[in-house]
Each structure stands twice: as structure tokens, then as C-alpha cells.
């Protein structure tokens, strides 16, 4: 695989048009790999999202957002 990538990189240096075609081909290959992986593992694979990161969502009922843990329900033994 490394040899293939190196030879493609050498070819791309001399032709910008070839670089665009290779980028399109790689996008297609990634799509096929995603579909195969989804079929094999049976779980959806999240797509990469671009945007501004937000604060993590923390469940207020656990007390974690205040830096404290909520004590487990008291059970009498």
C-alpha cells in the first residue's frame, strides 16, 4: 500500500489535473470502505462534521456538571 501511495504521489507532482482525478477516486474508495464496514459490523458509522465545537452535554441529574457525583440511592442492608 505504501508503494502505491508513493507512486501516486510522484505522478501527482507532475500533473495537477491528475491530482484532482486521484482525489475523486480516493473519495469513491472511502465511500465503498464505509459501506463495507457498515455491512460487516452492522452499526452506523458517523460522518465527520465540520463546525464550531460546543461544550459537552452533561446530564444535570447526575451531578457531574457541578464537579460532584450524586450519591447512589441508599440501600439498607
The general outline is elongated
- How far apart are the termini? 62 Å
User: Would you tell me the structural class of the helices and strands?
Assistant: mainly alpha
Please give the largest β-sheet: none
Q: Give unreliable regions as ranges.
A: none
What is the assembly state of the chains in this entry? single chain
Rg (C-alpha, Å):
24 Å
Number of helices: 2
The average pLDDT value, as a whole number, equals 76
- Following the backbone from N to C, one meets helices and strands in this order, namely HH
Bin the helical content: 40-55%
How much of the sequence is in beta strands? under 5%
Number of strands: 0
Description of the structure:
This protein has 77 residues and is mostly helical. The chain contains 2 helices and no strands. It has helices at residues 2-14, 16-41. It starts with a helix and ends in a 36-residue tail after the last helix.
Quick structural summary:
With 77 residues, the chain is mainly alpha-helical. Helix content is 51%, strand content 0%. The mean pLDDT is 76.
Explain the layout of strands and helices.
Elements: H1 2-14, H2 16-41
Amino acid at each position: 500500500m505504501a508503494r502505491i501511495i508513493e507512486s501516486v504521489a510522484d505522478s501527482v507532482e507532475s500533473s495537477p489535473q491528475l491530482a484532482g482525478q486521484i482525489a475523486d477516486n480516493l473519495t469513491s474508495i472511502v465511500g465503498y470502505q464505509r459501506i463495507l464496514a457498515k455491512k460487516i459490523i452492522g452499526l452506523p458509522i458517523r460522518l465527520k462534521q465540520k463546525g464550531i465545537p460546543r461544550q459537552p452535554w452533561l446530564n444535570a441529574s447526575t451531578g457531574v456538571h457541578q464537579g460532584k457525583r450524586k450519591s447512589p440511592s441508599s440501600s439498607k442492608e
